[in-house]
Amino acid sequence: MTSKTPQLTYATYLQLEELLQLQQPQSHPAEHDETLFIIIHQVHELWFKQMLHELDLAGVKFREGDLWGVYHLLKRVRMVLKTLVGQVDVLETMTPESFVSFRERLDTASGFQSMQFRELEFRLGLKREEVLKYMPEGMAGRDAAMQRLDQPSLIDDFHAFLAARGVAVPTEVLERNVRQRSEPNEAVQDLLVDLSLHSPEMANLFELMLDIDEGLQEWRYRHVQLVRRTIGGKHGTGGSPGVPYLERTLFEPVFPDLWAIRHRF
What's the pLDDT tens digit per position in 129-171? Predict the structure, then answer.
């Protein structure tokens, strides 16, 4: 007699029993706001995973020349970024006193160790050698992040998409070292201006890409303000540099050429 396969339910499909056991405060007895702190960061990691999922397929669609497929995926990424900004509102209900009550329990744990966020930066094209010092050998998720560093980013997929449509993207842009950050290029900017003026569907794509760029910068700003509001000028946990470093990353554009042409219309 064969055993019957258990019926799939809401709880088993989402693995709720396991999921709801993943919030384990380190304070004893557990400080009330530590659960909120854990959940918000776990949710952030889930949204980072989803954005990487969408951006990877967007890169494929770019290289296939599927403009509307790209557009659909990037709209979703834009909405996820807006959701992440909204979650900062929830975390800001935690006072500095509440955070201090369990902060020392975090030991060496730090948001700087989020390798999925590094993956997200690298996938978008924000590749900075300086962040590697916060990614020591053996850190969980480092190998995946380093793999992203060595792969073409979304901006490379975008340039390949333009070239496949007959746009005269300079060879040095198409064949650049993908491990390096994409630098502004005046020849590319001239091409983007022309496309913006004569191709409505491309103009809409550029605006959506800027929405994502601006959304990431908005999240960075809200995150900096959250950290300043919570710990002031203190160093971050795990020896991370805290507010001063975060402030330096505030207005680093993902798509510098799209920003550079705004005054030309």
Answer: 888 888 889 999 999 999 999 999 999 999 999 999 999 999 9
Residue 205 belongs to some domain of the structure: yes
Here the CATH number for the domain that contains residue 89 is: 1.20.58.480
Cα–Cα dist 142/139, whole Å: 5
pLDDT in tens, 80-125: 999 999 999 999 999 889 988 888 888 777 777 899 999 999 999 9
**How far out from the chain centre does Cα 129 lie?**
17
Entry pTM: 0.91
The answer to whether residues 153 and 123 touch, using CB atoms and an 8 Å cutoff, is yes
Q: Which domain holds residue 77?
A: 31-102+110-156+168-264
Structural domains counted in the chain? 1
Q: Which two tokens stand for residue 125?
A: 């094209």
Is 71 a domain residue? yes
| Sign of the C-alpha dihedral computed for residues 5, 10, 11 and 14 taken in this order | positive
Q: 11 in a domain, yes or no?
A: no
Alpha helix positions (H), the chain:
10-13, 16-19, 32-64, 67-91, 96-103, 115-124, 142-149, 154-164, 171-174, 186-198, 200-231, 243-248, 256-260
